[in-house]
Amino acid sequence: MTTPRWKASRASEIGLDGSAWDEAVLAFETGTMFHTTAWTEAVARGFHRQASYFAFLDASGDLKALFPVTEGKRGPFRTAFSPVTIVTPYGGPACAAEDLSLALRAIQALRRTAKWDYVRIALPPVPGLLPDEPGFTLLKSSTRIVPLGSDGSIWKGLNRRCKRYIKKAEEAGAVVRDVKDFGFLEDYLGWAESAFSRTGTEFETPRDLYDALRDLVLPTGTLLVRGAYVGDRPGVIEFFGLSKGWLYAIDSAMDRTTGVDGLGNLLTWDTMRLASKRGATRFDMLGTTIPHVAEYKQSFGGELAPVFGLEASTRAFWMAKRLAGAVGR
């Protein structure tokens, strides 16, 4: 039986601009807040790339998938990311889960038409989903998903160490506040750079991205910026996402000179409760390869769930990347 093919077009050509795109993309099973125009434009601005929006239609002209990307160049090569996976965890095609293979096939065809030398996708967690499409390299990872509910059920899911740290922070007088003024950003970037330096890695998130999130995403109400404070001093600031019944842990940094334990635990616990009251049923804490961060996330309960990335490239890009790696070694 012949596999149906989808036709790609610019979303604007079929009237899917702005709010129309957002409404359509969030209606798809794999569509997330990270597929919306506000988030895509913020990533494009933050990394100095070009946001592009594609729609895939079947032979009957029915809309089957939407695909936001940010386009740019790496040397002489044209690249497309959905998304740039720094601060932004998920992207890829927004579609029905059962249509993922067809969507990936359509993206392969689009890659050739758009003359992208490299494309990378990060898919949100979908139970039972294992993408396997010829031409893509599968990148396996995991995330921690914690169920949300009543305050009592959330508290019950925390381990003893986590509960102890929350109580320590409360006893020290720490309180959680929503943050609207981004005057904290200089300190935040310094905390983050120090944390990355301790692991021997470079902090790659540009300030422009945080400014773009403030300007474009914060007004939508899907971005929560919250801090745990001791007096007027923030000890930890974290960016959370809240959309379609999901709470996401997006990015955080901590001032390790406060001398108060448990600030991150208190902030996360309080935000889980807040999100549950606003209709969230699941908390995606995202994955990590740093052992002590993984242990911290595990203390909130839940289970690991597989997530997948995919990448595809031209042979010329692959050879250049391999040569650069050899030179780097």
Strand content: 25-35%
- The ordered string of helix (H) and strand (E) elements is EHHEEEEHEEHHEHHEEEHEHEH
Q: Report the mean per-residue pLDDT as an integer.
A: 93
| Gross CATH architecture of the largest domain | 3-Layer(aba) Sandwich
End-to-end separation: 48 Å
Within CATH, the superfamily of the largest domain carries the name Gcn5-related N-acetyltransferase (GNAT)
- Please tell me what the overall shape is: globular
CATH topology call of the largest domain: Aminopeptidase
Quantity of strands, as a count: 13
Give me the number of helical elements. 10
Write up what this structure looks like.
With 329 residues, this protein is an alpha+beta fold. It folds into 2 domains: 7-142 and 308-328, Gcn5-related N-acetyltransferase (GNAT) (Aminopeptidase); 149-280, Aminopeptidase (3-Layer(aba) Sandwich). Helices cover 36% and strands 29% of the residues. It is built from 10 helices and 13 strands. It has helices at 18-27, 37-47, 100-114, 151-157, 160-171, 185-198, 207-217, 263-277, 291-298, 315-328; strands spanning 7-10, 50-57, 63-74, 77-82, 94-95, 118-122, 137-147, 175-178, 223-230, 233-243, 246-254, 282-284, 303-313. Strands 1, 2, 3, 4, 5, 6, 7, 8, 9, 10, 11, 12 and 13 form a 13-stranded mixed β-sheet that branches. A hairpin with a 2-residue loop joins strand 9 and strand 10 (233-243). The longest helix is centred in the N-terminal third of the chain and has 15 residues, at 100-114. It is globular. 41% of the residues are buried. The mean pLDDT is 93.
